[in-house]
Protein backbone atom coordinates (compact mmCIF):
# COMPACT_ATOMS: atom_id res chain seq x y z
CA UNK A 1 0.00 0.00 0.00
CA UNK A 2 1.46 3.35 -1.04
CA UNK A 3 1.59 6.41 1.17
CA UNK A 4 1.02 9.99 0.00
CA UNK A 5 3.77 12.52 -0.59
CA UNK A 6 2.43 14.57 2.33
CA UNK A 7 3.96 17.54 4.13
CA UNK A 8 5.86 15.39 6.62
CA UNK A 9 7.47 13.28 3.89
CA UNK A 10 8.30 16.33 1.78
CA UNK A 11 9.94 18.03 4.76
CA UNK A 12 12.15 14.99 5.35
CA UNK A 13 13.02 14.76 1.65
CA UNK A 14 13.83 18.48 1.42
CA UNK A 15 16.40 17.99 4.18
CA UNK A 16 18.32 15.56 1.95
CA UNK A 17 18.38 17.81 -1.13
CA UNK A 18 19.84 21.20 -2.08
CA UNK A 19 17.51 24.21 -1.77
CA UNK A 20 15.11 24.60 -4.67
CA UNK A 21 14.96 20.89 -5.45
CA UNK A 22 11.29 20.61 -4.46
CA UNK A 23 8.56 22.91 -5.68
CA UNK A 24 4.85 22.96 -6.39
CA UNK A 25 3.99 21.57 -9.84
CA UNK A 26 2.61 23.92 -12.46
CA UNK A 27 -0.49 23.05 -14.55
CA UNK A 28 1.76 22.06 -17.48
CA UNK A 29 3.28 19.35 -15.30
CA UNK A 30 -0.10 17.76 -14.58
CA UNK A 31 -1.77 17.67 -17.99
CA UNK A 32 -1.34 15.57 -21.11
CA UNK A 33 -1.60 16.79 -24.71
CA UNK A 34 -5.07 15.46 -25.51
CA UNK A 35 -6.61 17.01 -22.42
CA UNK A 36 -8.40 13.87 -21.29
CA UNK A 37 -6.45 13.28 -18.08
CA UNK A 38 -5.48 15.54 -15.18
CA UNK A 39 -2.67 14.47 -12.88
CA UNK A 40 -1.93 15.13 -9.22
CA UNK A 41 1.24 15.34 -7.17
CA UNK A 42 2.36 16.28 -3.69
CA UNK A 43 5.35 18.15 -5.12
CA UNK A 44 7.64 18.39 -8.12
CA UNK A 45 11.23 17.18 -7.62
CA UNK A 46 13.89 18.80 -9.84
CA UNK A 47 17.19 16.97 -9.31
CA UNK A 48 20.40 18.31 -10.83
CA UNK A 49 22.37 15.07 -11.03
CA UNK A 50 22.13 11.30 -10.72
CA UNK A 51 23.10 11.32 -7.04
CA UNK A 52 20.09 13.51 -6.26
CA UNK A 53 17.80 11.23 -8.27
CA UNK A 54 19.12 8.27 -6.27
CA UNK A 55 18.50 10.09 -2.98
CA UNK A 56 14.93 10.90 -4.04
CA UNK A 57 14.15 7.34 -5.11
CA UNK A 58 15.70 5.86 -1.95
CA UNK A 59 13.59 8.18 0.21
CA UNK A 60 10.43 7.27 -1.68
CA UNK A 61 11.21 3.56 -1.36
CA UNK A 62 11.71 3.87 2.40
CA UNK A 63 8.47 5.83 2.82
CA UNK A 64 6.47 3.80 0.23
CA UNK A 65 5.69 6.95 -1.80
CA UNK A 66 4.92 6.63 -5.49
CA UNK A 67 7.04 8.40 -8.14
CA UNK A 68 5.71 9.62 -11.48
CA UNK A 69 8.59 10.43 -13.87
CA UNK A 70 8.09 13.35 -16.24
CA UNK A 71 9.95 14.00 -19.48
CA UNK A 72 8.69 16.58 -21.94
CA UNK A 73 5.06 15.82 -21.16
CA UNK A 74 4.31 14.93 -24.79
CA UNK A 75 3.22 11.32 -24.19
CA UNK A 76 -0.21 10.42 -25.54
CA UNK A 77 -1.18 7.50 -23.30
CA UNK A 78 -1.22 9.13 -19.86
CA UNK A 79 2.04 7.65 -18.58
CA UNK A 80 3.05 11.02 -17.12
CA UNK A 81 -0.19 11.78 -15.25
CA UNK A 82 -1.56 9.87 -12.24
CA UNK A 83 -5.17 10.84 -11.66
CA UNK A 84 -6.09 8.88 -8.53
CA UNK A 85 -4.50 7.19 -5.54
CA UNK A 86 -2.17 8.52 -2.83
CA UNK A 87 -0.45 11.74 -3.94
CA UNK A 88 2.77 10.78 -5.74
CA UNK A 89 5.99 12.71 -6.10
CA UNK A 90 6.42 14.07 -9.62
CA UNK A 91 10.05 13.77 -10.75
CA UNK A 92 11.29 15.85 -13.67
CA UNK A 93 14.80 15.60 -15.12
CA UNK A 94 14.54 18.93 -16.97
CA UNK A 95 17.58 20.26 -15.08
CA UNK A 96 19.63 17.22 -16.14
CA UNK A 97 20.00 18.25 -19.76
CA UNK A 98 23.73 18.23 -20.45
CA UNK A 99 25.69 16.60 -23.24
CA UNK A 100 28.31 14.67 -21.27
CA UNK A 101 30.45 13.80 -24.26
CA UNK A 102 30.48 13.34 -28.01
CA UNK A 103 32.75 10.95 -29.89
CA UNK A 104 32.42 11.53 -33.64
CA UNK A 105 35.00 8.88 -34.48
CA UNK A 106 32.83 6.35 -32.62
CA UNK A 107 29.51 7.80 -33.79
CA UNK A 108 28.39 8.11 -30.16
CA UNK A 109 26.97 10.88 -27.99
CA UNK A 110 26.42 10.76 -24.21
CA UNK A 111 23.48 12.83 -23.01
CA UNK A 112 21.47 13.24 -19.83
CA UNK A 113 17.86 12.16 -19.84
CA UNK A 114 16.47 15.68 -19.59
CA UNK A 115 18.08 16.77 -22.87
CA UNK A 116 15.52 17.90 -25.44
CA UNK A 117 15.61 15.78 -28.60
CA UNK A 118 16.12 18.77 -30.92
CA UNK A 119 19.10 19.90 -28.85
CA UNK A 120 20.68 16.45 -29.12
CA UNK A 121 20.15 16.58 -32.88
CA UNK A 122 21.82 20.01 -32.97
CA UNK A 123 24.81 18.78 -30.93
CA UNK A 124 25.25 15.87 -33.32
CA UNK A 125 25.03 18.18 -36.33
CA UNK A 126 27.68 20.48 -34.86
CA UNK A 127 30.00 17.46 -34.73
CA UNK A 128 29.28 16.54 -38.35
CA UNK A 129 26.96 13.70 -37.41
CA UNK A 130 23.24 13.02 -37.19
CA UNK A 131 21.02 11.56 -34.47
CA UNK A 132 18.30 9.95 -36.62
CA UNK A 133 15.26 10.05 -34.32
CA UNK A 134 12.68 12.46 -35.72
CA UNK A 135 9.36 13.17 -34.01
CA UNK A 136 6.77 15.89 -34.36
CA UNK A 137 7.42 16.78 -30.70
CA UNK A 138 11.22 16.95 -31.03
CA UNK A 139 11.31 20.57 -29.84
CA UNK A 140 9.92 19.63 -26.42
CA UNK A 141 10.23 15.86 -25.84
CA UNK A 142 13.21 14.66 -23.83
CA UNK A 143 15.60 11.77 -24.36
CA UNK A 144 14.58 10.01 -21.14
CA UNK A 145 10.96 9.92 -22.24
CA UNK A 146 11.93 8.88 -25.77
CA UNK A 147 13.76 5.87 -24.36
CA UNK A 148 11.21 5.09 -21.64
CA UNK A 149 8.51 4.86 -24.31
CA UNK A 150 10.77 3.43 -27.05
CA UNK A 151 9.72 6.25 -29.36
CA UNK A 152 9.47 5.59 -33.08
CA UNK A 153 9.01 8.46 -35.49
CA UNK A 154 9.44 8.94 -39.19
CA UNK A 155 12.79 7.20 -39.85
CA UNK A 156 12.24 3.83 -38.16
CA UNK A 157 12.23 2.21 -41.60
CA UNK A 158 15.94 3.00 -41.95
CA UNK A 159 17.34 3.60 -38.48
CA UNK A 160 15.01 1.81 -36.07
CA UNK A 161 13.20 2.83 -32.88
CA UNK A 162 14.79 4.63 -29.93
CA UNK A 163 15.82 1.19 -28.61
CA UNK A 164 17.90 0.58 -31.75
CA UNK A 165 19.68 3.92 -31.30
CA UNK A 166 20.79 3.32 -27.70
CA UNK A 167 24.07 1.65 -26.71
CA UNK A 168 23.96 2.09 -22.95
CA UNK A 169 22.05 3.58 -20.03
CA UNK A 170 22.60 5.04 -16.62
CA UNK A 171 19.53 4.62 -14.43
CA UNK A 172 18.34 4.71 -10.84
CA UNK A 173 16.61 1.48 -9.85
CA UNK A 174 13.60 1.30 -7.49
CA UNK A 175 15.73 0.81 -4.36
CA UNK A 176 17.78 3.93 -5.09
CA UNK A 177 20.83 2.10 -6.43
CA UNK A 178 22.46 3.33 -9.63
CA UNK A 179 22.85 1.10 -12.68
CA UNK A 180 26.13 2.18 -14.30
CA UNK A 181 25.49 0.90 -17.81
CA UNK A 182 26.48 4.03 -19.73
CA UNK A 183 28.79 2.22 -22.13
CA UNK A 184 29.79 3.08 -25.69
CA UNK A 185 30.10 -0.55 -26.78
CA UNK A 186 28.41 -2.14 -29.77
CA UNK A 187 29.03 -5.59 -28.30
CA UNK A 188 28.60 -6.39 -24.61
CA UNK A 189 27.43 -9.95 -23.97
CA UNK A 190 27.71 -9.97 -20.18
CA UNK A 191 24.41 -11.33 -18.96
CA UNK A 192 20.89 -9.95 -18.78
CA UNK A 193 20.34 -6.82 -20.85
CA UNK A 194 19.04 -4.29 -18.31
CA UNK A 195 19.30 -1.57 -20.95
CA UNK A 196 16.63 -3.19 -23.10
CA UNK A 197 14.53 -3.97 -20.05
CA UNK A 198 14.44 -0.31 -19.00
CA UNK A 199 13.82 0.98 -22.54
CA UNK A 200 10.08 0.85 -23.16
CA UNK A 201 9.26 0.26 -19.47
CA UNK A 202 7.79 3.77 -19.15
CA UNK A 203 9.47 4.47 -15.82
CA UNK A 204 7.94 1.44 -14.09
CA UNK A 205 11.28 -0.30 -13.46
CA UNK A 206 13.60 2.64 -12.88
CA UNK A 207 14.46 6.21 -13.81
CA UNK A 208 16.72 6.64 -16.85
CA UNK A 209 19.20 9.42 -16.06
CA UNK A 210 21.58 9.33 -19.04
CA UNK A 211 22.08 7.49 -22.31
CA UNK A 212 24.78 6.57 -24.78
CA UNK A 213 23.26 7.08 -28.23
CA UNK A 214 24.27 6.07 -31.74
CA UNK A 215 25.06 8.71 -34.33
CA UNK A 216 25.34 8.31 -38.09
CA UNK A 217 27.00 10.24 -40.85
CA UNK A 218 24.53 12.45 -42.76
CA UNK A 219 23.58 11.24 -46.25
CA UNK A 220 25.49 12.88 -49.10
CA UNK A 221 22.21 13.93 -50.74
CA UNK A 222 18.56 13.93 -49.69
CA UNK A 223 15.32 14.21 -51.61
CA UNK A 224 11.60 13.68 -51.24
CA UNK A 225 8.46 13.35 -53.31
CA UNK A 226 4.73 13.36 -52.64
CA UNK A 227 3.06 10.75 -54.82
CA UNK A 228 -0.67 10.17 -55.31
CA UNK A 229 -1.37 6.45 -55.06
CA UNK A 230 -4.44 4.43 -55.89
CA UNK A 231 -4.91 2.86 -52.46
CA UNK A 232 -2.88 1.37 -49.56
CA UNK A 233 -2.19 -1.80 -51.56
CA UNK A 234 -0.63 0.31 -54.33
CA UNK A 235 1.37 2.23 -51.71
CA UNK A 236 2.83 -1.03 -50.38
CA UNK A 237 3.76 -2.17 -53.87
CA UNK A 238 5.40 1.21 -54.43
CA UNK A 239 7.37 0.73 -51.21
CA UNK A 240 8.58 -2.63 -52.45
CA UNK A 241 9.69 -1.14 -55.75
CA UNK A 242 11.49 1.71 -53.99
CA UNK A 243 13.37 -0.74 -51.78
CA UNK A 244 14.27 -2.97 -54.71
CA UNK A 245 15.77 0.05 -56.46
CA UNK A 246 17.43 1.71 -53.49
CA UNK A 247 17.59 -0.79 -50.63
CA UNK A 248 18.29 0.85 -47.24
CA UNK A 249 18.58 4.33 -48.79
CA UNK A 250 14.80 4.81 -48.37
CA UNK A 251 14.66 6.80 -45.13
CA UNK A 252 10.93 7.39 -44.81
CA UNK A 253 7.71 6.20 -46.42
CA UNK A 254 4.63 7.92 -45.01
CA UNK A 255 1.02 7.20 -45.93
CA UNK A 256 -1.59 9.98 -45.73
CA UNK A 257 -5.32 9.90 -46.38
CA UNK A 258 -7.29 12.65 -48.05
CA UNK A 259 -9.02 13.37 -44.73
CA UNK A 260 -5.75 14.52 -43.17
CA UNK A 261 -5.23 17.13 -45.87
CA UNK A 262 -8.87 18.20 -45.54
CA UNK A 263 -8.30 18.78 -41.81
CA UNK A 264 -5.20 20.83 -42.65
CA UNK A 265 -7.21 22.96 -45.06
CA UNK A 266 -9.87 23.47 -42.39
CA UNK A 267 -7.62 24.27 -39.42
CA UNK A 268 -4.43 25.63 -41.03
CA UNK A 269 -5.46 27.34 -44.27
CA UNK A 270 -2.02 28.92 -44.50
CA UNK A 271 -0.55 25.49 -45.30
CA UNK A 272 -0.12 25.01 -49.04
CA UNK A 273 -1.43 21.59 -50.07
CA UNK A 274 0.48 19.55 -52.65
CA UNK A 275 -2.32 18.87 -55.15
CA UNK A 276 -5.17 21.03 -56.44
CA UNK A 277 -7.45 17.98 -56.46
CA UNK A 278 -6.60 15.95 -53.40
CA UNK A 279 -6.17 12.23 -54.09
CA UNK A 280 -7.64 9.69 -51.71
CA UNK A 281 -4.17 8.50 -50.72
CA UNK A 282 -0.72 10.10 -50.84
CA UNK A 283 2.70 8.82 -49.87
CA UNK A 284 5.73 10.84 -48.88
CA UNK A 285 8.89 9.09 -50.05
CA UNK A 286 12.15 10.32 -48.51
CA UNK A 287 15.63 9.31 -49.64
CA UNK A 288 19.09 9.70 -48.12
CA UNK A 289 21.66 8.83 -50.77
CA UNK A 290 25.37 8.16 -51.04
CA UNK A 291 28.01 10.16 -52.87
CA UNK A 292 27.38 10.58 -56.58
CA UNK A 293 23.66 9.76 -56.50
CA UNK A 294 21.02 12.26 -57.65
CA UNK A 295 17.79 12.29 -55.57
CA UNK A 296 15.77 13.93 -58.36
CA UNK A 297 16.84 11.33 -60.89
CA UNK A 298 16.10 8.45 -58.53
CA UNK A 299 12.66 9.78 -57.61
CA UNK A 300 11.76 10.53 -61.23
CA UNK A 301 12.74 7.00 -62.23
CA UNK A 302 10.67 5.56 -59.37
CA UNK A 303 7.68 7.67 -60.39
CA UNK A 304 7.95 6.61 -64.04
CA UNK A 305 8.13 2.93 -63.07
CA UNK A 306 5.19 3.23 -60.68
CA UNK A 307 3.08 5.23 -63.13
CA UNK A 308 3.61 2.62 -65.83
CA UNK A 309 2.46 -0.03 -63.37
CA UNK A 310 -0.67 1.97 -62.54
CA UNK A 311 0.33 2.60 -58.94
CA UNK A 312 0.60 6.41 -58.99
CA UNK A 313 -1.40 9.06 -60.80
CA UNK A 314 0.33 12.31 -59.86
CA UNK A 315 3.39 13.54 -58.02
CA UNK A 316 5.31 16.50 -56.66
CA UNK A 317 9.09 16.30 -56.47
CA UNK A 318 10.96 18.49 -53.98
CA UNK A 319 13.12 20.89 -55.98
CA UNK A 320 15.28 21.88 -53.01
CA UNK A 321 16.03 20.91 -49.43
CA UNK A 322 13.68 23.72 -48.35
CA UNK A 323 10.83 22.18 -50.33
CA UNK A 324 11.67 18.77 -48.90
CA UNK A 325 11.33 20.35 -45.45
CA UNK A 326 7.97 21.80 -46.54
CA UNK A 327 6.75 18.34 -47.53
CA UNK A 328 7.73 17.00 -44.12
CA UNK A 329 6.12 19.99 -42.40
CA UNK A 330 2.84 19.05 -44.07
CA UNK A 331 3.12 15.50 -42.76
CA UNK A 332 4.10 16.64 -39.27
CA UNK A 333 1.20 19.13 -39.16
CA UNK A 334 -1.42 16.41 -39.46
CA UNK A 335 -1.38 15.51 -35.72
CA UNK A 336 -1.90 19.18 -34.80
CA UNK A 337 -4.79 19.45 -37.28
CA UNK A 338 -6.27 16.34 -35.71
CA UNK A 339 -5.97 17.92 -32.28
CA UNK A 340 -7.78 21.05 -33.43
CA UNK A 341 -10.62 19.02 -34.92
CA UNK A 342 -10.84 16.84 -31.80
CA UNK A 343 -10.70 13.05 -32.15
CA UNK A 344 -13.27 10.82 -30.53
CA UNK A 345 -10.76 7.98 -30.36
CA UNK A 346 -7.12 7.76 -31.48
CA UNK A 347 -5.31 4.50 -32.16
CA UNK A 348 -1.57 3.92 -32.48
CA UNK A 349 -1.41 0.49 -34.10
CA UNK A 350 0.95 -1.67 -36.11
CA UNK A 351 0.20 -4.46 -38.54
CA UNK A 352 2.10 -6.93 -40.70
CA UNK A 353 2.61 -5.09 -43.98
CA UNK A 354 0.64 -7.65 -45.97
CA UNK A 355 -2.39 -7.11 -43.69
CA UNK A 356 -2.57 -3.31 -43.96
CA UNK A 357 -4.70 -2.95 -47.08
CA UNK A 358 -7.30 -5.45 -45.84
CA UNK A 359 -7.35 -3.84 -42.38
CA UNK A 360 -7.98 -0.36 -43.81
CA UNK A 361 -10.92 -1.66 -45.84
CA UNK A 362 -12.44 -3.71 -43.02
CA UNK A 363 -11.94 -1.06 -40.35
CA UNK A 364 -13.46 1.65 -42.55
CA UNK A 365 -16.56 -0.47 -43.09
CA UNK A 366 -16.82 -1.37 -39.38
CA UNK A 367 -16.48 2.25 -38.25
CA UNK A 368 -19.06 3.31 -40.85
CA UNK A 369 -21.57 0.92 -39.28
CA UNK A 370 -21.16 2.62 -35.90
CA UNK A 371 -22.41 6.03 -36.99
CA UNK A 372 -21.71 9.24 -38.86
CA UNK A 373 -17.95 9.36 -38.33
CA UNK A 374 -14.82 10.53 -40.15
CA UNK A 375 -11.58 8.55 -40.20
CA UNK A 376 -8.09 9.95 -40.67
CA UNK A 377 -5.68 7.08 -41.30
CA UNK A 378 -2.03 8.02 -41.71
CA UNK A 379 1.35 6.88 -40.52
CA UNK A 380 4.69 5.24 -41.07
CA UNK A 381 3.76 2.71 -43.72
CA UNK A 382 7.31 1.43 -44.12
CA UNK A 383 7.30 -0.08 -40.62
CA UNK A 384 3.60 -0.95 -40.49
CA UNK A 385 2.63 1.74 -37.98
CA UNK A 386 -0.71 3.46 -38.61
CA UNK A 387 -2.41 6.21 -36.64
CA UNK A 388 -6.07 5.34 -37.09
CA UNK A 389 -8.07 8.21 -35.65
CA UNK A 390 -11.85 8.59 -35.61
CA UNK A 391 -13.56 11.99 -35.62
CA UNK A 392 -17.07 13.41 -35.32
CA UNK A 393 -19.09 14.33 -38.37
CA UNK A 394 -18.53 17.83 -39.70
CA UNK A 395 -20.18 20.41 -37.46
CA UNK A 396 -20.36 18.14 -34.40
CA UNK A 397 -18.10 17.93 -31.34
CA UNK A 398 -16.39 14.83 -30.02
CA UNK A 399 -18.25 15.04 -26.70
CA UNK A 400 -21.43 14.07 -28.52
CA UNK A 401 -19.88 10.65 -29.18
CA UNK A 402 -18.61 9.85 -25.68
CA UNK A 403 -20.91 6.84 -25.46
CA UNK A 404 -19.33 5.42 -28.64
CA UNK A 405 -15.65 5.89 -27.76
CA UNK A 406 -15.17 2.51 -26.10
CA UNK A 407 -16.96 0.65 -28.86
CA UNK A 408 -14.89 2.42 -31.53
CA UNK A 409 -11.63 1.46 -29.85
CA UNK A 410 -12.77 -2.10 -29.25
CA UNK A 411 -13.74 -2.41 -32.91
CA UNK A 412 -10.38 -1.16 -34.13
CA UNK A 413 -8.33 -3.16 -31.66
CA UNK A 414 -10.26 -6.38 -32.31
CA UNK A 415 -9.44 -6.07 -36.01
CA UNK A 416 -5.79 -5.32 -35.21
CA UNK A 417 -5.52 -8.37 -32.93
CA UNK A 418 -7.18 -10.59 -35.53
CA UNK A 419 -4.59 -9.47 -38.08
CA UNK A 420 -1.68 -10.27 -35.76
CA UNK A 421 -0.92 -6.61 -35.05
CA UNK A 422 -0.21 -4.51 -31.97
CA UNK A 423 -2.51 -2.10 -30.14
CA UNK A 424 0.48 0.13 -29.33
CA UNK A 425 3.08 0.65 -32.02
CA UNK A 426 5.12 3.57 -30.67
CA UNK A 427 3.22 5.48 -27.97
CA UNK A 428 3.41 2.86 -25.25
CA UNK A 429 0.76 1.66 -22.78
CA UNK A 430 0.79 4.37 -20.11
CA UNK A 431 -2.39 4.36 -18.09
CA UNK A 432 -4.72 4.74 -21.05
CA UNK A 433 -4.11 1.26 -22.45
CA UNK A 434 -3.67 -0.86 -19.32
CA UNK A 435 -7.03 -2.56 -19.83
CA UNK A 436 -6.29 -3.05 -23.53
CA UNK A 437 -2.98 -4.72 -22.68
CA UNK A 438 -4.79 -7.06 -20.30
CA UNK A 439 -7.34 -7.89 -23.01
CA UNK A 440 -5.00 -8.39 -25.95
CA UNK A 441 -1.62 -9.13 -24.37
CA UNK A 442 -0.09 -12.59 -24.32
CA UNK A 443 -0.84 -14.17 -20.89
CA UNK A 444 2.66 -15.61 -20.51
CA UNK A 445 4.23 -12.25 -21.30
CA UNK A 446 1.97 -10.49 -18.79
CA UNK A 447 2.88 -12.99 -16.06
CA UNK A 448 6.57 -12.44 -16.76
CA UNK A 449 6.11 -8.66 -16.73
CA UNK A 450 4.34 -8.78 -13.37
CA UNK A 451 7.09 -11.02 -11.96
CA UNK A 452 9.79 -8.59 -13.14
CA UNK A 453 7.89 -5.66 -11.68
CA UNK A 454 7.50 -7.42 -8.32
CA UNK A 455 11.17 -8.41 -8.23
CA UNK A 456 12.62 -5.01 -9.10
CA UNK A 457 9.95 -2.79 -7.55
CA UNK A 458 8.43 -4.79 -4.68
CA UNK A 459 6.70 -1.75 -3.14
CA UNK A 460 5.22 -0.60 -6.45
CA UNK A 461 6.55 2.95 -6.20
CA UNK A 462 7.70 3.38 -9.81
CA UNK A 463 5.02 5.09 -11.92
CA UNK A 464 2.14 3.31 -10.16
CA UNK A 465 -0.65 2.19 -12.46
CA UNK A 466 1.30 2.70 -15.69
CA UNK A 467 1.71 -0.31 -18.03
CA UNK A 468 0.53 -2.73 -15.33
CA UNK A 469 -2.48 -2.22 -13.11
CA UNK A 470 -1.48 -1.06 -9.63
CA UNK A 471 -1.99 -3.65 -6.92
From TrEMBL:
Keywords for this protein: FAD, Flavoprotein
Regions of compositional bias (Basic and acidic residues) in chain numbering: 26-35
GO MF annotation list: catalytic activity; FAD binding
Superkingdom of the source species: Bacteria
Residue ranges occupied by any FAD-binding PCMH-type domain in the UniProt entry: 37-218
InterPro entries for this protein: FAD-bd_oxidored_4_C, FAD-bd_PCMH, FAD-bd_PCMH-like_sf, FAD-bd_PCMH_sub2, FAD-linked_Oxase-like_C, FAD-oxidored/transferase_4, Oxid_FAD_bind_N, Vanillyl_alc_oxidase_C-sub2
GO terms under biological process: respiratory electron transport chain
Cofactor: FAD
Region (Disordered): 16-42
Annotated family: Belongs to the FAD-binding oxidoreductase/transferase type 4 family.
Name the record gives this protein: FAD dependent oxidoreductase
Protein's organism: Cereibacter sphaeroides (strain ATCC 17023 / DSM 158 / JCM 6121 / CCUG 31486 / LMG 2827 / NBRC 12203 / NCIMB 8253 / ATH 2.4.1.) (Rhodobacter sphaeroides)
Upper taxonomic lineage: Bacteria, Pseudomonadati, Pseudomonadota, Alphaproteobacteria, Rhodobacterales
